[in-house]
Amino acid sequence: MKIMHVDASAKRERSNCRALSRYFLERLREERVDLEVDYLDVTVDTPPHVTEAFAIATYTPAHERTAAMKATLAASDALCERLLAADALVFAMPMYNWSMPSAFKAYVDSVTRTGLTYVHSEDGHTIGQLVRQKALFITSRGADLRAGSPYESMDALTPALKAALGSSVSRVRLSSMRSRCSLRTARRARAHSSGRARNWPR
Predict the structure, then answer these.
(1) How many CB atoms are closer than 10 A to CB 11?
(2) Which CATH architecture has domain 2-199?
(3) Where are the domains of the chain?
(4) Partners of 5 in the β-ladder
(5) Tens digit of pLDDT for each residue in 124-165?
(6) Dihedral (CA of 55, 56, 61, 65) sign
(7) pLDDT in tens, 1-43
(8) To the nearest 5 percent, what fractions of the chain are helix, strand and coil?
(9) Cis preceding linkage at 201, omega within 30
(10) How far is CA 16 from the centre of its chain?
């Protein structure tokens, strides 16, 4: 089984979501001896932001693209190829200002490609091409944004991730609460990760 593992925390050390994604993959490796991981750190290899040239090239039919257009799309093509080659997806990131890190947004923009990761049906509906892949998002945030909490309406991250990947998304959330709660929260998150690894991506 091939996993596409993407880290998006600006912190190299002492990152909760990086630590939890490593822990999850360690547990998954115990369950799946055939595990192969394609790793990408988007804070190191950050995809280019969308430009006018990129937008024009994207919506130009492949057989009509110029050499310059193909060069503009080369990095995006490579990322889409890696994504489509994976059997399952693991994305780890913190919440920054209620949403996703900008480096991960650049990644989403790069892999949301008409004709590659989604196509249009004859009646105009959008059909995603990642239907066989399960996606797991491991996120950390500095407040409790669960349903019923005072900050529930400020969670712009979860809806955006669901919109990007659709119904195949599952989540492990780690609220970065201080003092004694942080240890309890971390233990719960690790236990949740272990449970996911035993049954994932089935």
Answers:
(1) 14
(2) 3-Layer(aba) Sandwich (3.40)
(3) 2-199
(4) 39, 90
(5) 888 888 888 888 999 998 888 888 888 889 989 988 988 888
(6) negative
(7) 999 999 999 998 889 999 999 999 999 999 888 999 999 999 9
(8) 45, 20, 35
(9) yes
(10) 16
